[in-house]
Design brief:
The protein has about 450 residues and is of the alpha+beta class. Among the domains are: about 190 residues, no CATH class; about 90 residues, no CATH class. It has 14 helices and 16 strands. The protein has a four-stranded antiparallel sheet, with no helix packed on it. Strands 5-4-14 form a three-stranded antiparallel sheet. Helix 2 runs antiparallel to helix 4. The longest helix is centred in the last third of the chain and has 27 residues. It is flat.
Amino acid sequence: MGQNFNTNIFTMGPWACSMGLFLRKGGNSTGIIANVFGAFRAKYRPLLLSRGEYVPTGTLRDNDIVGAIADAIAKNVGKLQPQVIRKDEKGLTVKNDYLARILTLRPCPEMSTYDFLYRIASDLVYTSNSFSVIFYNEDFTRVTSIQPITTKSYRIFEDDRHNVLFRFRWDYDGETYTVPYQNVIHIKARYNKKRFLGTSPDIELKRSLDLVETSGEMIKNIVNHSNSLSGYLKYSNLADDKELKEKAKEFQESYMNASNAGGVAALDSTYEFHEISTKTTPLPTAQITFLRDNVYRYYGVNEKVLTSTLSDQEWISFYENVIEPIAIQLGYEFTFKLLTPREIGYGNKIEFTANLLQYATLQTRDTIGGNMFDRGAMTINEYRALMYYPPTEDGDVRMVSLNYVKAGDQSLYQVGKDGQQGGNGEPPPGQQDRQRRAMEAAANAYFTAMKGG
């Protein structure tokens, strides 16, 4: 059906590809054809009967501390690489089919894969729940797009026929839609209280964030009054209360505010100002730091994560504690919601991987990359990419050090194989030129890396 939410038909996808259902806007009806979910009853019957779960309408999107944390986490999640893979007796195969191209390039028309994953991760930080609706083509045979939705009002519930449904009001058009939960990529954080939803951080962080905001207002007041005069004004002439108030107000507006940067007032003989000494209130920096760190601990980050100054080991700890759990969830959810039971049974699955070496120092890259290169685990161009250099011609080959050989191949290594190598172990003439060019490319990559350019 494409991207049009305003149509009334919503498809079920590969789990029941010959059926459809109505996606009804508004109202109390679920809009589900009675026999559509017959194939799903066995799957959902073990679920406990529940009439739904709601979420609070509060938001943390306007808080600068949580915003910085969300940006730091989402930028790293956005670097994950989705892969559709299959494992069988022959090993692992990375597929490059239609679904793989959608996931690795553009899951929906307005978002690249980076933007798509960034949105999912940021929603996870702000609300502990991220939702993306899956769209299929007219005959339900292909995924056309996966659309992340922003909503403040939604409900996951089970109807009378034990079908789990997801009803939400989309912020994009303000309309209400109901779709099968099977057609929603749902990523959760802090899944410890409710049946369907992750625990919202609004309530858990409310006290700390309120105290941070109060401390900020305190600092603002201290700064505003730091250069202001403080005291009482004695007026020499006779005056009634109204005139005294007007004189005091005039004096206050002229001198007792933050614009009086010098803290000096000019008076004539009719005024006499008596300053009142006040003790300067120290800035509550220690308290603010404690409260801010409390928010950091809630999300598993620190100041180094936000400023990108982590060491190699610190970044690996951050990845394993924060990024990797999200990657695991993405893999499980995408595999179950996008692949058919038959595909899963044959070993197909979707994973979200990261190249941990891309965050390491050049010295660490050279050490690990060099060892992998010598053992044939990395091509010349992969090693060059690791060292921030562009690919080179004839660089997509794996070089293996001749210091390593299988125990059963020692004689072949020494005397050669009949019909393919001579007694001196030299390769056939047709392979010598390719090996020579590969060796030259490897030498050029090595000397370029050593010279630093």
